[in-house]
Amino acid sequence: xxxxxxxxxxxxxxxxxxxxxxxxxxxxxxxxxxxxxxxxxxxxxxxxxxxxxxxxxxxxxxxxxxxxxxxxxxxxxxxxxxxxxxxxxxxxxxxxxxxxxxxxxxxxxxxxxxxxxxxxxxxxxxxxxxxxxxxxxxxxxxxxxxxxxxxxxxxxxxxxxxxxxxxxxxxxxxxxxxxxxxxxxxxxxxxxxxxxxxxxxxxxxxxxxxxxxxxxxxxxxxxxxxxxxxxxxxxxxxxxxxxxxxxxxxxxxxxxxxxxxxxxxxxxxxxxxxxxxxxxxxxxxxxxxxxxxxxxxxxxxxxxxxxxxxxxxxxxxxxxxxxxxxxxxxxxxxxxxxxxxxxxxxxxxxxxxxxxxxxxxxxxxxxxxxxxxxxxxxxxxxxxxxxxxxxxxxxxxxxxxxxxxxxxxxxxxxxxxxxxxxxxxxxxxxxxxxxxxxxxxxxxxxxxxxxxxxxxxxxxxxxxxxxxxxxxxxxxxxxxxxxxxxxxxxxxxxxxxxxxxxxxxxxxxxxxxxxxxxxxxxxxxxxxxxxxxxxxxxxxxxxxxxxxxxxxxxxxxxxxxxxxxxxxxxxxxxxxxxxxxxxxxxxxxxxxxxxxxxxxxxxxxxxxxxxxxxxxxxxxxxxxxxxxxxxxxxxxxxxxxxxxxxxxxxxxxxxxxxxxxxxxxxxxxxxxxxxxxxxxxxxxxxxxxxxxxxxxxxxxxxxxxxxxxxxxxxxxxxxxxxxxxxxxxxxxxxxxxxxxxxxxxxxxxxxxxxxxxxxxxxxxxxxxxxxxxxxxxxxxxxxxxxxxxxxxxxxxxxxxxxxxxxxxxxxxxxxxxxxxxxxxx
Length: 825
Ligand SMILES: *Cc1c(COP(=O)(O)O)cnc(C)c1O
What we know:
The chain has four domains: about 230 residues, Type I PLP-dependent aspartate aminotransferase-like (Major domain) (Aspartate Aminotransferase, domain 2, 3-Layer(aba) Sandwich); about 140 residues, Alpha-Beta Complex (Aspartate Aminotransferase, domain 1), CATH 3.90.1150.10; about 190 residues, no CATH class; about 110 residues, no CATH class. Helices cover about 30% and strands about 20% of the residues. It has 21 helices and 37 strands. It has a seven-stranded mixed sheet with strand order 1-7-6-5-4-2-3, sandwiched between helices. Strands 16-31-30-35-33-32-37 form a seven-stranded mixed beta barrel. It has a four-stranded antiparallel sheet with strand order 10-11-15-12, covered by helices on one side. α2 packs across α10 and α3 packs across α10. The longest helix is centred in the first third of the chain and has 21 residues. The protein is globular and about 90 Å long. It binds pyridoxal-5'-phosphate. The site of pyridoxal-5'-phosphate has 12 residues, from α4. Its EC number is 2.8.1.9. Its cofactor is pyridoxal 5'-phosphate. GO terms for molecular function: lyase activity; molybdenum cofactor sulfurtransferase activity; molybdenum ion binding; pyridoxal phosphate binding.
C-alpha cells in the first residue's frame, strides 16, 4: 500500500515469482507483498479470460453473444452459491453498486398501490436513509426501538398513524459502515413476522455492503433471509466495480409495481397510439436489469472469486483473520494513555468479550483522539499526518448520518448549525463548540496484517500521547533573551506569481512594491482544473514546484519555464503578458458557466483563452488545466479576504509573557484583529497578504530534525515572501520569537503581525526536486503543535501611513538587505 512507482511494483512481482502463499490460519498473515500478488493474480487471470474469449453484447444469436449470456448466467448462480443462497429461492440482479440496488427496491415500493411506509435503523448508510424521500411515512429506529417492536407482540411503530401505506419496508445494515457494529440477520425474519402479525405487508431490506467484505453472508435459510439484500462486489474483491441485489423470490411480486422499464427488460412495447408494454416474465433479473449489462465486470467476478478463494481462503478464514486484527487494534487503543492517565482514544466501536450468541463487531474501528487535557484532536490535522505516514484511513461523517449523530451526541440543531457554519480549507475548524463533527475510521481487510496494526498503534502513541515528563514546547523562556534590534535584516524576498508554482526571487537592489493585498505580483495567477474549476495545488501536483515564473519587466512578460525533464511536444517556456488585455481571456461566463474555487471559496478569475498556454501546463502536470488571473481591485467574487488570526498560544497579556503559559480555551475573547481581517483583501494566497519566516526558527527546527536523524530542510519549503535573518548567530535563543512580535519595521515600512501560519504536509515537498519526504512536518508536529495546529512562520500585512505625502508613503517598497526592527509591544 505504498505509493511506489511501477518499477517498484515490477520488482516486487519479480521477487514474488516463487512466493508460496501462506494461508490465513494459525495467525500467519499476508503482508503487502501479498496484496500486490492478489491484485496481480486477479488482473492476470482476468486478462487471460479477456484475450482468449470473445464476449459479444448479449441478446443476439451470434456465438460471441451467446458466450456472454451463458457465462453471465453461470456466474449469477456461482455468486448466489457463494452466499449459500439456493437459486430456486433467490435471484441475483446485477446493479452498478449497492446504492443502485437500494434505488431499485425503492422504485418498486414507490410504485406499489398506496405507496409504502419506511422504517430504517439509525446505523443506516446515507444511501438507505435517502429511501425515506419516496415513502408516505418514515421513522428512524435505534436498537431499543427495534427490540421494542420485536418484543411488543408485533407492532409496527407506525401503526397508530392516521394515514398508513399498504406496505412497510424495514431497512438495516448487517454491519455499520461507521463503526463496524453488527446487527442480527435474524431481525429480518422477526420483523417480518411482527409485521405479518399486525396484518401488514412487511418487507425487509438488508444492506450487506460493509458486512460481506470480511464475513461469510449465509442466506442458507430462505425463511429467515431478508427479502432484499444489497452488496458491493468491489468491497469484497477490490475489483470489479459492481453491485448486486439478491431478491428472495417470495418477495419478487413487489417489483411488478416498478413503473420505469429500460431496454432489455421488456418483451414488447407499443408507442404511438397506445402506451402498452409487456415486461419480461421469464426471470426476475431480466425484468430489472435496465440496458446493457456491465458484461466485462460480471465476467471479472469469476476471476475475483477464484483468486480471492485461492489466496485468502474462505470468507470464514478472512473473518477470523480480521477479527483477530481488530481485537488487537482495539486492545492497543484502549491501553493508550497520556502520562496523566487520561485516555488517548475515545472509541465509538465496542469489542466486548465474545460470547456464543454475540455477533461481535466488524473489523472497523471508529474513534477520536483527545489531548491529555481533554481537547479533541482536529480530524483535518490528524489526516495531514496520517497521509504523510502512508496510512489509508478515512475521517469525517462517513456517509452515516444517524450513526455519527448518536456516536458524537449531535442534536439536529447542532448538525444544521455546523452545516451553515461550513468548512473551508485554511480555517478547517472541525471541532465545533467543543464537539468533534466526525470520526476517524480504520478498516481492516483480508490483506491487512498484524504489523499494519502495530504500526498504527505506534503512530498514535508517538504523535498523540503526552508522556508525563514531556512538557509542551516552551515559548516564554526563550523570550527572556532579547534580540539586538538592529541586527535583523531581510535576507530574501520571494513572490509566487502563480499560486502553488515556483517562486521568483527579487533581485538584490530592486525595491519591491508592497500593497494592501501583499507583495506586488504575488499569487495573482493560478492554474484551474478544466473540469472542476478548482485551483490546483502542490499538494496534489508536486511538480508545480518545478514550474518557474520570472517577471520580466523589460519585455512586459511573465516568462514561465519548466525545470523538470524535457517533455515531447512541449515548448521549454511560455510567455504571458503582464498587462491584462481583455482579449487574452475567455468571455466571462456570467453566472451560468463555471466558477473557479480557491481553498473551497468560490471566486471569479479570468481564464486565458490561449491553447498554447493551457497545453503547456496540462502536459507538464498531466491534468487538464488552464491559467487564470485574479487581478487586484476586483469586486464581488473577484476579491478575497484574509483569514489569518492570532493563534491561542500567541495571545497573552504582556505581564504574563515571560512567566507562565496561557492555557485559556479558544472561547477567550477574539483578538481585535479578527474583525479587521474580515476587511483585509488578499489575492490568491491561502490566508493572508504576506508570509514571513525567521531563519533562527528554521535553524532551531533543523537542529531538531537532525536529532531525529533527518535531513535539514531549506527555507524554500515554507514558501515565505520575506525571510528574516539575524547577522549574529544566536543559537536557539531567538528562535520562534516571531510568535510574539506584533509589529515590524522593514526599511521604512511598517507591518502588522496577523498570527502564526498553520501548516500542512505541503512543506514536505522539496521545491528543487518536487520530491516528497516526511520532514519537516513530522518534527514540526512534535515541536510546534499548539491546540492541535502545526504552526510555522507568521502572517502579516502592510500598515500604510495615512496622510503622509512622502515618496515612501505613496509607493511603499521593501528590498533585500533592509533592516528589520521589531517594535516593542
Ligand atoms: C459502501 C456502503 C454502501 C454504499 O455502497 P455503494 O457500492 O457505494 O453504493 C452502503 N451501505 C454500506 C453499509 C456501505 O458500507
